[in-house]
Ubiquitin carboxyl-terminal hydrolase 39
Amino acid sequence: MPPISSPNLLPGVGHGRTPGCCSPVPPPHTLGLPWVPQGTRGPSLGPPGARHPLGTHGQVSPGHGIAPAPVAQPGTPPRVAPVLPAAVRYGRFDPEDQRSRHCPYLDTINKSVLDFDFEKLCSISLSHINVYACLVCGKYFQGRGLKSHAYIHSVQFSHHVFLNLHTLKFYCLPDNYEIIDSSLEDITYVLKPTFTKQQITNLDKQAKLSRAYDGTTYLPGIVGLNNIKANDYANAVLQALSNVPPLRNYFLEEDNYKNIKRPPGDIMFLLVQRFGELMRKLWNPRNFKAHVSPHEMLQAVVLCSKKNFQITKQGDGVDFLSWFLNALHSALGGTKKKKKTIVTDVFQGSMRIFTKKLPHPDLPAEEKAQLLQNAEYQETMVESTFMYLTLDLPTAPLYKDEKEQLIIPQVPLFSILAKFNGVTEKEYKTYKENFLKRFQLTKLPPYLIFCIKRFTKNNFFVEKNPTIVNFPITNVDLREYLSEEVQAVHTNTTYDLIANIVHDGKPSEGSYRIHVLHHGTGKWYELQDLQVTDILPQMITLSEAYIQRRGGDTATSSGAGTSPGL
């Protein structure tokens, strides 16, 4: 068969295009057109002298089995022109475009500008529907039709390779064909990291450094979080939660929660989805950069908390932790009493609270004694659950020492833990009444959170207590704080520190940082926004600890990992 000449190319295909992107017309019978023996009349495809859709004036190269279309005779009924398949009209003769595996623009992709941490919105229309990322400049655009923002961008700036952020498919614009190339898999993995069960099991055994695209090395899980403006309080809490093995493992595998049913219009499940995405990005061993921006996570926090916690305003780490754990538990379908979730399985313990009402201090002694005989003033006991334990610090000194410097007192951890021994009583005042309370632990969770109460609020200002808490890094035994009948049930009551959140500076102007234990290497690291440095464990005890997460032997024995806790 002689070679097909250029007039036989499809109209509009192959002219002004990249060489190799067009193909000759195949035999008509392969396109679903009727085959007519040579020398006979073929189907009429239009009026006399009309341009044949398969060539010039109906002429086809010899050997294709179609004769030139003769002029229609008077009285002959008109014939309907066959419709060309879409694959032919757009220059594709296979189910898969021949250009898909040979796109000439792959070398224009610039991985150094790709950042999938931000909200998936078109940079022009601000729509989140059908958004594509330009892999040359990193910007987001909507659609890929003729008048779409992505199409116009590709023509105006000659940026041709785009990624659909929802379907994870690659396209070449303005030619509008799908790109299929295995070399692009690292981009889709950065956009949506996935973990197998085996990879999740081995996370706490890995001590190998990963190398980012820019050449920097990092440990998965020990990466900085971008402080967008004043969200370091949330960053520290999210970093701490990401290093609790059972909670991390649950959210690394999306199948664990993606089928949870929520009421129509419920926005709280967005918190679960964003937290899972953040966990997978923090532990991604194939990141393009050695830090992560929690932009989408924090947008969900602002929305779900009804702006109680914001990106642009400093917040309290304990308040955020309390709200986040309860909101996460509720979004996963948990309830206060019956239905449990991964949050309660990991952090929830229980205690007995003994409460006794006190007479007004200004009453005469005889009247006080008489009131104490009433049932209203008798001690009552209730069972209550907790997500974290609040530890009260002794009052800070108001006077300076002989060197005109404020004395910074120190207190052992076990002194402030005495609040939960079931014997120590503390007075609590309300607007009208006073109560005497004591606490006794009845159940210890696998991972225990200590919140050291450093801030005291009144009508005028917030005061910070700078007292240093001397705490051991490992082997904190809480057996003596359990009731006697519970001690026999709890075989493991020892906890090791795995995360320590520190607040520095004034109450309203301070900053947060966190100390984290990397299980694979056994080393401690300090993270403050994007800065990650290693630190000696002896230095951790000198900080103004605000929140601690500790884990006990119960978590270790269940296979959750070594030294768990906050």
Summary: The mean pLDDT is 81. The radius of gyration is 35 Å.
